[in-house]
Design a protein that fits this description.
422 residues; alpha+beta; Beta-Lactamase; 6-stranded antiparallel sheet; 15 helices; globular
């Protein structure tokens, strides 16, 4: 069995266990069936996301990859109709390249700037959703689109330029609308479609350079590294999907990353290690896509079963990124960032040197930023309380050298979270 097949089975087994824990819960404040449905939907999205990343890593052709995305996402948002337009810079119009349902008979159809929802997205560069298309003043006059009742479309953008538009449709028979959860799923997969199109363009440009200049082996390697860097940077955009679910910690990953890199530099880690810390920091909470937003933003204390659900996110994050061939141990850092030196952390209850140095470092930065900033269930504790927490638990929960470096970064080097100065 291949590694990614094992990962799918692990995710499915984990879902079964969570459902069993919910069913066994006697806590009245938890709505077991409601949470079960939400978690099941998130796991479906996570499995689809995992499979799509694997398909991308396997370097499928753009046409094949786009067909996989449109089919897979349609299933997730329960839509029977979908479209994938690519922008033709020569003619200045969108051209229908991949389609489902209502659009299948119209491959090659052109959409101009401002015409219908796809044309509006081309014009504005923003994702849009219209759940009452028949009364929408911007509806397309072409009668072939009369059956549309609800429609959403998202732009695919590279360096500020529209590359295409992806969208999905409900007709009157479907009797459905597009909600926030649907838009979160669509945003995530639009990011993957972006990656595929960007890599295709860069590959084409590199091939043209090869033919024109007959590059040396060294230049070829540089071109490959450039493509890999672009791929990695774009995958990091997936982290932004967490922001759709948890507004209170929208910038959390970025602030944690800034602090973690400052600590790493203070500890004289190599440039390579610091870059690994940066990459892991930017996506360390990507597993929160698998946690219902109601729990992430719940005011008040979490029940044991709710906390168990939230504790899934390091494993979920690991499962998303484990197949990506980073030159740093990003997946393991993501997995271990809630482990503690005394073995009291999760999910593996590692202790001491079993925990990667980069994960020990990220753990301290994560705690400090989390305590220093507000949450939906409490006000910010402030930076003094946060530093007191890591000092008090220095050597028990948190790595001694990392804590000492963190304290120096704040007390001697003047590090600050800029949002506290506003």
């Amino acid at each position: 069995m291949h590694g990614h097949e094992k990962t799918r089975n692990q995710l499915i087994d984990e879902l079964v266990k969570v459902r069993q824990r919910i069913a066994a819960s006697k806590i009245s404040e938890v709505k077991p069936r409601y949470l079960e449905k939400k978690i099941e939907a998130h796991y479906d999205s996570l499995l689809a996301l995992h499979d799509t990343i694997i398909d991308m890593i396997n370097q499928l052709g753009v046409d094949e990859f786009m067909e996989i995305i449109i089919t897979r996402v349609a299933g997730l948002v329960k839509a029977n109709h979908g479209f994938f337009y690519l922008y033709n810079p020569d003619s200045g119009v969108l051209e229908l390249k991949k389609a489902l349902g209502l659009y299948s008979a119209h491959i090659g159809y052109h959409v101009t700037h401002g015409a219908g929802l796809a044309g509006k997205v081309l014009q504005t560069g923003r994702a849009m959703a219209v759940n009452d298309y028949q009364s929408w003043e911007g509806r397309h006059p072409d009668p072939r689109w009369n059956p549309i009742r609800a429609i959403t479309a998202l732009p695919l953008v590279f360096e500020g330029q529209i590359m295409g538009v992806m969208g999905f449709v409900h007709t009157e028979e479907d009797r459905k609308k597009f909600g926030k959860d649907d838009m979160a799923v669509l945003t995530c997969f639009a990011a993957l479609a972006n990656i595929a199109l960007i890599n295709a363009r860069l590959s084409t440009k590199l091939q043209q350079e090869l033919e024109r200049k007959k590059l040396t082996e060294k230049e070829l390697q540089q071109g490959h590294e450039h493509l890999q860097e672009t791929f990695v940077a774009t995958v990091n955009a997936l982290a932004s999907t967490v922001e759709l679910k948890d507004l209170y910690t929208a910038a959390h990953q970025r602030w944690v990353t800034r602090l973690a890199c400052a600590i790493a530099a203070e500890m004289d880690l190599s440039k390579e290690q610091i870059e690994g810390v940066r990459m892991a920091g930017l996506i360390h909470d990507i597993g929160k896509m698998n946690v219902p937003a109601e729990l992430l933003n719940k005011p008040g204390r979490l029940s044991d079963i709710e906390y168990d659900i939230i504790k899934i996110h390091p494993q979920s994050g690991y499962d998303i990124v484990r197949e990506i061939q980073f030159p740093w141990p990003v997946a393991q850092i993501v997995l271990q960032h809630h482990e503690r030196m005394d073995g009291s952390g999760y999910p593996q209850r590692l202790s001491g040197m079993q925990i990667l140095l980069e994960a020990r470092l990220l753990a301290v930065a994560d705690v400090v930023e989390s305590m220093a900033s507000p949450r939906p269930y409490r006000d910010a504790y402030g930076i003094e309380i946060a530093l007191e927490e890591i000092s008090k638990n220095r050597g028990t929960l948190y790595d001694t050298e990392v804590v000492d470096a963190c304290l120096r970064v704040f007390q001697e080097k003047g590090f600050t979270f800029e949002y506290m100065d506003r």
